[in-house]
Structure formats: structure tokens, C-alpha cells
């Protein structure tokens, strides 16, 4: 084989190897990029989920606290009305407490 054919085959082999290496590199880059993207997405999702959960927890806690405060206020009013001799049915209607709850308040 003449030297110029050997040189040509070497050049072609080098070009093929370069193209194959480029293709492999692109596939590897895409694969690694997907993995990195997935990792980042999961981290962001976890952060957003935690923040949303925290907000919902605070809101739920505030709601429960307000509800408890209203209930305690209704009990205070019911006790005062009981002390004034107001009928249990009227206290129940005014306070939102059941007659049973009011009767429990009147027991010493």
C-alpha cells in the first residue's frame, strides 16, 4: 500500500474516531445534564413543598387558635349570664354553646 493511502486511512480513522467521540460526548453530556436537572428540580420541589407546608401549618394553627379563643370567650360570656340567672336556652342561642355544655359550666 502506498504511503499516501496509509496516510489517508489514518486521517479517515482519526475523523471517524473524532465523530464517534463527539457523539459519545454529546450523549454523556445529555445524560449528565438530565441527572443534574433532575437533582436541581427535586431540591427546588422539596424547598417549595416545605415552604408551602410551613405556610399551611401556620394558617391552620392560627385558625385553631382563633377558634379556641372564640370558644373560651363564649364560655366566659355563658358563665357570666348563668351568674345573672339568664335561662340556659337563651345562653345557648346567644353563645353558640350547646345546652349540655352550659349545664356543665353551672356544675360547681
TrEMBL record:
Residues 49-70 are annotated as: Disordered. It comes from the Bacteria. This is Essential protein Yae1, N terminal. It comes from Candidatus Kentrum sp. TUN.
